[in-house]
Design goal:
This protein has a single domain, classed as Rossmann fold. It is built from five helices and six strands. Helices cover about 35% and strands about 25% of the residues. The chain has about 200 residues and is of the alpha/beta class. It has a six-stranded mixed β-sheet with strand order 2-3-1-4-5-6, sandwiched between helices.
Length: about 200
């Protein structure tokens, strides 16, 4: 009698788009996640896609990360990126007040683009460059209160000093995963999930 082979589970993919103003460190954060390198030079991005296999709560997953342009010239592309994404990292620099205002505008645009969809919008707010404390222009409490208003996780990060450089991506993937799990099995959540139903 033939023995049954255990079924190989397909690796789940999570499509995360990194959005924010120019020069806030979107590429630096993405490259720190993918290759653990730090970009010293700022070279404006148009669109770079990265795939990284990670261990998320004891499950192997694939993060499909799209690093996008911060410049206004690419506003038309942004809508396409927003439509495709399952989750978003909205990144500002704690050293530039204008970039904080930009994430507010980006959030409003995401909500407009996604309003016809059934699913929730999964996003994580990120205040990058927290190693530059002496140049801080946006208080931590402002980031916290904006995240509370949007009901989303918030991190202050430093791609340079490897502070919270992985957690925002993982948290975003968890938000996507937990909603998908809820749709499949309303009462069961995987162990190690951020919000377990007991």
């Amino acid at each position: 009698m033939a023995t049954q082979q255990p079924q190989q589970q397909a690796i789940k993919e999570y499509k995360i788009v990194v959005l924010g103003g120019g020069g806030v460190g979107k590429s630096a954060l993405t490259i720190r996640l993918v290759s653990d390198d730090f970009l010293e030079e700022y070279d404006p991005t148009i669109e770079d896609s990265y795939r990284k296999q990670c261990d998320l709560d004891n499950h192997t997953v694939m993060l499909d990360v799209l690093d996008t342009a911060g410049q206004d010239d690419f506003a038309a592309l942004r809508d396409a990126w927003m439509r495709e994404a399952e989750g978003f990292l909205l990144v500002y620099s704690i050293t530039k007040r204008a970039t904080f205002d930009e994430v507010v505008a980006l959030h409003a645009r995401i909500m407009r683009v996604k309003e016809d969809e059934e699913s929730e919008v999964h996003l994580v707010l990120v205040g990058n460059k927290c190693d530059l404390e002496d140049q801080r222009a946006v208080a931590t409490t402002e980031g916290q209160s904006l995240a509370a208003e949007w009901n989303c996780p918030f991190y202050e990060t430093s791609a340079k000093n490897k502070i919270n450089h992985i957690e925002p991506f993982f948290d975003c993937a968890r938000l996507i995963r937990d909603e998908a799990d809820d749709a499949e099995e309303p009462l069961s959540k995987p162990q190690g999930s951020c919000c377990q139903i007991l």
